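User: Just a sanity check before I run the rest of the batch. Below are the structure tokens for the first item. I only need the designed sequence back.
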């Protein structure tokens, strides 16, 4: 018998509330960051009156109380790991502590939810193309691989060529990387005559950027690797928040471990799929919890049942972009991921960047592209962009290697103020 979506969702809500009620009293008592901000929660009405929290609040707290800030429920000796944000948005990195329990929580979400949704099993060999430094990145995926019982292969401290060789020689069946870096691996494989599609690699799991949910990027990765490509969303300060399923039309939010809300753009949004900023509360990281945290991610949330059977809500098309990454062309609001979807249909284009200029209060947008050893298809690209987005964007080819290549999170919007 299939359980109805409604009752299952009600059960999830009841469990979320029970966990909040079980753990919030300790946070209110012992965590000085939250003591001033929160009040006791007995029902959802109480929860909805709690204030929203931003990354700026956390950064300010750590500046005032170095090195770890005051969002600590336990004495420092209880914590066993420290990581930090990538600092990709230009702000100073945020340090984040985990207890043994909260680190196990991260690992379990990977082992029990993210990996199974991508079809990864204990028989797999997982290659993690990531430099294992202070940024949390794929550390949790590495731990999740062990938790699952699969083989975790570190791809830290290697060149792209060394990573390719390591993957092929050890028969990796799963790759974890950013989508941008997967395309970089494919580019180097082609240059050095490595046939990735003929390797045993069958699944790729991506995080850090929305690319794996952008159809053009996903297709490019799947073509290059002969593999199925999955998306994962997560944040250093929050934890592992989502995964894409077999339907591949979005990312399910891990509602067993988080409460999710959406702040609708322009006030109310009574539609079935409200669009706006995703807000999250974690339910498994009580040593450094976040309550009603504004993620800065722009999403379209759907509670329509998914044919994969998951009772979780889904963000359609994955994260659509950062709320502050919006740019405007002739009155049309756009996000870099919309441009990315078109650009990735041109396999000869290896890298791109949207350059946004404010010239005498006018918005000017140029798409910079790299297209090695060939004349870039600027006219066709421009036409495709106009057909898909409804505006004309000038495209300009730049010399190979001019645009930044990122192994962590690529930022493909550059703002230039005159
Ligand atoms: Zn699904």
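Assistant: Here's the designed sequence for the first item:
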């Amino acid at each position: 018998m299939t359980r109805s979506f409604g009752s299952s969702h009600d059960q999830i809500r009841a469990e979320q509330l029970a966990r909040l009620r079980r753990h919030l009293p300790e946070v209110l008592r012992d965590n000085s960051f939250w003591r001033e901000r929160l009040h006791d929660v007995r029902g959802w009405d109480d929860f909805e009156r709690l204030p929203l929290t931003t990354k700026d609040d956390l950064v300010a707290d750590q500046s005032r109380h170095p090195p770890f800030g005051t969002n600590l429920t336990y004495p420092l000796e209880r914590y066993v790991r420290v990581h930090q944000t990538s600092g990709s948005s230009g702000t100073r990195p945020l340090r984040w502590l985990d207890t043994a329990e909260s680190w196990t929580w991260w690992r379990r979400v990977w082992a029990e939810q993210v990996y199974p949704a991508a079809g990864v099993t204990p028989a797999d060999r997982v290659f993690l193309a990531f430099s294992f430094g202070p940024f949390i990145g794929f550390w949790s995926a590495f731990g999740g691989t062990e938790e699952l019982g699969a083989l975790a292969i570190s791809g830290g401290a290697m060149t792209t060529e060394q990573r390719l060789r390591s993957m092929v020689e050890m028969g990796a069946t799963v790759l974890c990387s950013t989508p941008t870096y997967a395309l970089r691996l494919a580019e180097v494989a082609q240059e050095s005559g490595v046939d990735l599609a003929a390797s045993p690699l069958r699944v790729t799991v991506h995080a850090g950027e929305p690319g794996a949910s952008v159809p053009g990027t996903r297709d490019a990765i799947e073509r290059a690797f002969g593999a199925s490509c999955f998306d994962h969303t997560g944040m250093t300060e929050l934890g592992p928040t989502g995964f894409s399923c077999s339907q591949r039309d979005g990312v399910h939010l891990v509602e067993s471990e988080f409460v999710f809300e959406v702040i609708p753009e322009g006030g109310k949004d009574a539609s079935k799929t409200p669009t706006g900023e995703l807000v999250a509360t974690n339910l498994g990281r009580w040593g450094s919890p976040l309550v009603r945290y504004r993620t800065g991610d722009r999403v379209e949330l759907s509670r329509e049942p998914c044919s994969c059977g998951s009772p979780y809500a889904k963000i359609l098309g994955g994260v659509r972009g950062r709320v502050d990454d919006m740019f405007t062309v002739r009155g049309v609001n756009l996000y870099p991921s919309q441009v990315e979807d078109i650009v990735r249909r041109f396999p000869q284009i290896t890298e791109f960047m949207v350059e946004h200029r404010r010239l005498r209060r006018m918005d000017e947008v140029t798409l910079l592209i790299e297209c090695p050893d060939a004349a870039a298809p600027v006219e066709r690209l421009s036409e495709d962009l106009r057909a898909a987005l409804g505006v004309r964007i000038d495209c300009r080819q730049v010399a190979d290697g001019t645009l930044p290549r990122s192994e962590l999170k690529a930022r493909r919007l550059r703002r230039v103020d005159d």
